[in-house]
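The instructor's notes for this session suggest beginning with a concrete chain rather than abstract definitions. Hand out the sequence below and ask the class to guess, before any prediction is shown, which regions might be ordered.
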Amino acid sequence: MAAMGWLTPRRRSATARSVLAGEAAAEAARKTSQQLEAERETARAAEKPPKPAEPEFPVAGDAEAAAFFDLDNTVMQGAAIFHFGRGLYKRKFFQRRELARFAWQQAWFRLAGVEDPEHMQDARDSALSIVKGHRVSELMSIGEEIYDEYMADRIWPGTRALAQAHLDAGQKVWLVTAAPVETATIIARRLGLTGALGTVAESVDGVYTGKLVGEPLHGPAKAEAVRALAAAEGLDLNRCAAYSDSHNDIPMLSLVGHPYAINPDTKLRKHAKARDWRLRDYRTGRKAAKVGIPAAAGVGALAGGTAAAVALHRRRR
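After discussion, reveal the predicted structure:
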C-alpha cells in the first residue's frame, strides 16, 4: 500500500511560486473579464437601439385636450353630402337630372380620391338649391332616417375605436366637416360624440334661404373653426389630436400636437411621413394599395346605385 501513497493528497504549504501563480491567475481573470465586457458593450452599441414605447395616449383626465375628426373617408366611407343627396332623392326632393349630377359627383370623388374644392362646392350648391324653402326641423328629421339608411353601416370601425378612446379618457370629441352642420350633428349624436363643426346654411325663421353663412368649412376654414372652438372651450391645442384622410386638412392637422393621417391620400401620406405623423389605414387589399382612391365600398355602391336608378327611370318612361 505504501506504493500507492502518491495517490493520496498531502498538505503542502504555499510557496512563493504558488502564491505568485494564484495572483497571476486572478489578475488574468480580471483582465479577461474586463475584455469580455468591453466586447459586449461594443456589440450592444452596434445594435439598433430599441424604439422607445409610445407614451400612453390619449392621456386620461386631461381636460385641456380634445380630438377633432374629419368626417368624409375618415370616420365614414365616402362623402356624407352624397349619401344625404341619395336620401333626399328617395323622398322626391329633386328630379332625375339632379340625381344624375349627384351620381357623377360621387363617381368623380371615388376616382380622384381627393376632395376637390370646385367639385365639392358644386355638390353643396346643388344641395342648397334643393333644401331652399324647407324647414330646418324637417331636414333634421329626414337626416335621422337617412343616417340609418345610408350612413350607419359605412362608419370605419377603426376610426370609431380611436374616437371612443378619447371619450373613455374623458376628452371631448368633435367632427369637423364641410358637410352641413345639421347632418354632421346627427352623425356625432349617433356615434356618441360631443358635437360637430360643419358648414352653416343660412335660415330665417327656421327656413333655409339657399345661402351659406360665410363659406363651406373646407381646408383653412376647418383650421379656423378648430382654433375658435379651442379658445372657447379652454383647450390646449398642443395636447389635442386631429384625424383626417385628406391633404386639404393639413392646416387643421398642423394645429395640434397629435396629428393622425387616417386612410390618407397620396399627398397627405407623403406629408405625414416627412413629419413623422402617425398613420392609420383601415382599408384592405388592393384598395389600400391604391392610396389615391377611397377604399369605401359604399362610395362605389352609391355612384353605381344612383346611376342604376337613372337608367331604370329612363326605361320605365
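Then share the key points. The radius of gyration is 33 Å. Residues 285-317 have pLDDT under 50 and may be disordered.
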